[in-house]
Amino acid sequence: MKLLFPSPDFDDVVAAVCHGSATEAEMRALNELLRSNANARDEYLLRIELHARLAFDPDLFPQSDMAAMNADNRTNIVPPNLVVPPRKRRLVRVLALAACLMLIAGGTVFWFKWSTARNGGTSAAVAMLTRTVDARWSPKTHSLRVDSALEPGSLQLESGLAQVVFYSGARLVIEGPAELRLVSANEAVCISGRVLAGVPTPARGFRLRTSQLSVVDLGTSFGINASQSRTEVHVFKGKVELQPGKAGEQSLSEGQAALVQGSELPQLMAANPEAFAAMFEFQERSLASEALRYDQWRLSSAQLNRDPSLVLRFDFEDLSDQDWTLPNKAERNGPAEGGIIVGCQRAEGRWREKPALEFQSVNDRVRLDVPNEFRAMTLSVWVCLKGLDREFNSLFMSDGFDPGTVHWLIRRDGVLGLTVFGPHFGKFQILASPPVLSLENLGMWQHLAVVVDGRSQEVVHYVNGSPVSRHALKIGPPFRVGSAELGNWNARSGPNPEPSLIRNLSGSLDEFELFSRALSDAEIRELYLKGKPEL
Amino acid sequence: MSTDSTNRFGDSNAAQQRFLSLFLRSEREIFRYVAVLVPNVTDAEDIVQQTAMALWEKFDAYDPSQPFTPWACRFAVNKARQWIERRQRWQALLDHGLAEELAQRRQELQPEFEQRLKHLEGCLGKLPEGQRSVVEGYYYERASIQTLARRSGRSEAATYKMLQRIRHALLVCVGGQAKPEVA
């Protein structure tokens, strides 16, 4: 067999080589042609290049996961669950690769560090105010915002409803007028008023006291109506243990209630859910409104993912215990890959059903790599801080101190800082806001953003959608990210970095964006409004 | 309180991350490099997988001041050679120094390829729906010709030819001067 160029035979053989179906004779003939004809060789290389790009560059087929599924549904040839979209396939391959690497490394299967020890908690808070309806607080209780962290002390609600979630997981709905004293993450005192408690299994043992008695919860839902002289306990689900002042312990089961007056023995009766109807309704309504808000956010997320200037976006939606990659949700993501989670724990995000990633140990981090160069960039993150434990607490930091890269961080004193490194080693500019974050913000979800604009030579810091400081930027573009970390920093120093080089974040993230342009004040405001936990 | 063992895990984890990060960034280029020698998709994937293992085993020897991709491609070419040695058909294609010649020439043509193929995504977008679904099915979804034929109601031979025609149309679109594929 002899091949000519150009010829239909040449076309067929090249196609067969790509398909893997060329015969030995065809391959031999192609070999001879390509060695003797430079034009044929160049044309062959071009065709192979096209073929290889089509095969190994899934970005060429935007939004095709959906299209593939639809096609299959339409014709019913392959059940949809048998089609693994290529992006997922790649993830599977990467995971398989990583699994092999771990075996080679000699059984290093501790990729995840599920550490539970919290280093250096700075807040004494034991609970959080998560939701209110028409709540009026007594002047003695500072006006409380939803998401405020609550330290041990008294809460006096004059009217309305409020939900308090203890760090143990126990949830109390309070109906004003009521006075509640928080003791610890696992204990509160109801001095007067009505309280509805929901205690999930992990919080079993939560103790609610009144003047007359102490109720130890055994994983239930129960209500209390208390005053100085009498306490009613109604059990709606599960079981509680009553520990009256003098008399012996008594347990109450579902549907039972007890009335304790002075030092008398508990008087048994039937539980009366009607007396707590408003609170039950509030519980249900709050769950529904939360789910609604989460849905709205997801809808606006899908729109945001299509922004052509979006380089990198993590929504932390696909976290599972086994998964240590964070997919980049930007649909026009170009060369920026997803992130790799090291350590960290799954936590609750802005809404109960929304996952977040919690950073607490010095090892916790998300590694990522963004090869692009930028004339301008915008960084945006939703963060729930647990503390400002380090001198510098990393939000998003490029490794080391390379030219053109940036470090975005929170200083211990609540200052937002952006360091931009100049084109030569050793030259950099620190753009620091006034102290804008304080201990009162701990435990609340907040939106932070910074805009670096190479054209107008300006850097602007934002908190919850509002600019907090503007700075003239003396270093010009291009700006870079390169290898970087969310929630930590790789100083590229030796194995035992000095303390100032340890910059891990203490808190959770549930959304992160990097744009390749300077967003306007209005756009940052919109990011905040679309993502803020409550309307 | 970090003990030796936690340090060791830490170091090894850090190395794995560094490796994965570098590898994933270079992966597409490694694929294209391998495809010059073995264009068939599944075989190329096998070779890249073996390359990744070899790279990780030798990762200690990697000098971070040097770019990763060329270092990785040297391993890829060795793995491809080993793979070819066991397959007579592919030896016939790459014998008499053609493998080296192709790799070398591709290097020279690289800037021109980049220039032309940056239009590829736009050209894909311009394809009529029927053609686009075939090229997408074959390359993205990795469906077999058989499956694609059944879906579109064409014969397998017609589907295979259609794929050839689409590639030709794409080449014309990205560069204009592709030699006519008279398929």
Write the layout of secondary structure elements.
The complex is a heterodimer of chains A (535) and B (183).
Chain A: H1 8-19, H2 24-36, H3 38-56, H4 64-75, H5 86-104, E1 127-137, E2 149-150, E3 153-166, E4 171-184, E5 187-198, E6 207-209, E7 213-217, E8 221-226, E9 230-237, E10 239-244, E11 250-253, E12 256-261, E13 267-270, H6 277-304, E14 310-314, E15 325-326, E16 339-342, E17 345-348, E18 355-359, E19 365-374, E20 376-387, E21 392-398, E22 406-411, E23 415-421, E24 428-435, E25 445-453, E26 458-463, E27 466-472, E28 479-486, E29 506-515, H7 521-531
Chain B: H1 4-37, H2 41-57, H3 68-85, H4 88-94, H5 98-117, H6 120-126, H7 129-140, H8 145-152, H9 156-175
Structure report:
Chain A is of the alpha+beta class. Helix content of chain A is 21%, strand content 38%. Chain A has 4 domains: 8-56, no CATH class; 64-104, no CATH class; 127-282, Sandwich (Jelly Rolls); 305-531, Jelly Rolls, CATH 2.60.120.200. Chain A has helices at 8-19, 24-36, 38-56, 64-75, 86-104, 277-304, 521-531, and strands at 127-137, 149-150, 153-166, 171-184, 187-198, 207-209, 213-217, 221-226, 230-237, 239-244, 250-253, 256-261, 267-270, 310-314, 325-326, 339-342, 345-348, 355-359, 365-374, 376-387, 392-398, 406-411, 415-421, 428-435, 445-453, 458-463, 466-472, 479-486, 506-515. In chain A, strands 1, 2, 3, 4, 5, 6, 7, 8, 9, 10, 11, 12 and 13 form a 13-stranded mixed β-sheet that branches. In chain A, strands 14, 17, 18, 20, 25, 26, 27 and 29 form an 8-stranded antiparallel β-sheet that branches. Chain B has 183 residues and is mostly helical. Helices cover 78% and strands 0% of the residues of chain B. In chain B, helix 1 runs antiparallel to helix 2, helix 1 (4-37) packs across helix 3 and helix 8 (145-152) crosses helix 9 (156-175). Chain B is globular, with a radius of gyration of 20 Å. Mean pLDDT of chain B is 82; it is low at 1-10 and 177-183. At the A-B interface, helix 1, helix 2, helix 3, helix 4 and helix 5 of A face helix 1, helix 2, helix 4, helix 5 and helix 6 of B.
